[in-house]
Amino acid sequence: MKQIIDLLTEDISEENKLLILEILKCLLRRSDHLTAMVLSKQILALGKLMTKLGVRNSEPVYLKAKQFLKSAFLRFAVAGLFVLMFKNQTVSDSSNAGDVDLFFVLRTVIDPDDVIPDQDVRGEIIYLRDQ
What we know:
Blueprint: H1 2-7, H2 14-30, H3 32-53, H4 60-76, H5 81-87, H6 102-109
């Protein structure tokens, strides 16, 4: 799972990134224990991805990453998630300026006025081959 998470920050296609995000979402939904084991790695990888995309906030990868982080924050906030996030990672400074800006990520994900449609609501299924 850790190797899959690392692929998010590599130069791969958008479809592959969306597939990885879907795998992470399924893991979050099905296993809190396994998700908790790799949660800090997921947050940092998705933070790097969102920081890299920056103002291009209408792209599907950005929206899917934001949706995953919002779900993870809601599920794990009471379990010391924010302590975990800031324990081993600098928030933002000149040495990691292009890497990850956790303040940007938190501001984006926790925005109370932002509404992201929940993908768990079953609608029409669109298979990859039909796209």
